[in-house]
Amino acid sequence: MSTARTVLETEEHQALRAAVAALGKRYGRDYMTTVVREGKHTDELWAEAAKLGYLGVNLPEEYGGGGGGMAELSIVLEELGAAGSPLLMMIVSPAICGTVIARFGTEEQKRRWLPGLADGTLTMAFGITEPDAGSNSHRITTTARRDGDDWLLTGRKVFVSCVDIADATLIVGRTEDARSGKLKPCLFIVPRDAEGFGRNQIDMELQAPEKQFELVLDDVRLPADALVGDEDAGLLQLFAGLNPERIMTAAFGIGMGRFALAKAVEYARTRQVWKAPIGSHQAIAHPLAAAHIELELARLMMQKAARLYDEGDDIGAGEAANMAKYAAGEACVKAVDQAVHTLGGNGLTSEYGLASLITASRVARIAPVSREMILNYVSHQSLGLPKSY
Predict the structure, then answer these.
(1) Mind listing the pLDDT tens digit for each residue in 46-69?
(2) What is the C-alpha separation between 324 and 257, in angstroms, rounded?
(3) For the whole model, what pTM was predicted?
(4) Minimal CA–CA distance to 294: which of 332, 246, 247, 338?
């Protein structure tokens, strides 16, 4: 399919796209469905992407990364997704956790974690969502209290990806402000084998190699250096991770939408029921063209968000990242739905690999923040309308 992205991207970015696309093509959707069916993880693809330097492309060079930013990392995830084999853990480990530690971690934390996050030998999950808080981060009840030089962390988290295989989880908790007595957000690195750190897998209809978990933290004792960054800068540090999460979720959705659309276009070109391929009929062609347009528009906003973030404009990136995530989620769902519809009954078969995307595409609308909360954000942050909450 024709695309205008080469006009906006550097030669280096174009080369990165082509190289990652070639890697994704060697694995493809069949690899992903086999991994899911056999209950395995994407170890082979993860290891090869790491060896080629793709997983840590956004992390600092002095710690083994590529020295790039979200512009480069989002290209990697989008192209793997367009090949049918996205790596969800890229959103969490290098994008959220790696970025937070690179920007705010101590020198010791950077040396301990960043080289492994960059070369894929270490992974870190991210826990923010709670059963009773939903999208309201101000209602987080996971709390940390001091006990001598240590911290004791207590609370619950839900929908935390890959805790079973991650070496640690970056947990968003709250500590008491000594001056005001109010609770403020803070981030803690919790090792997988920490005493009192329990997990239960959540049964999901979603067919993905990455499993979801509920976490129970029962007075998990952590050393003082488990706290990431400055205790008084928790909110800033939190959003330093959430903006990359939204950018990468947009990449995830755009990649999935492109994969579905490519399948539908190929089918519409060759499927012949009467005298001409079904793609010659406007009832088939126009919805596919509209899906392509919406995916391209979503990518433009994602590129804007990535550039603003990489340039250090956190406020501008926050608005653009939310808009990109919203646009990509909508475009992804519509592209998948139209692709399945284009194939008719074949769209629901395992052979074509589209039916499972009906559920998967909803993720881009729901997580990590719902489209309604993004509309709330744009309403009062961008448009200046009063809050309803």
Answers:
(1) 999 999 999 999 999 999 999 999
(2) 14
(3) 0.95
(4) 332
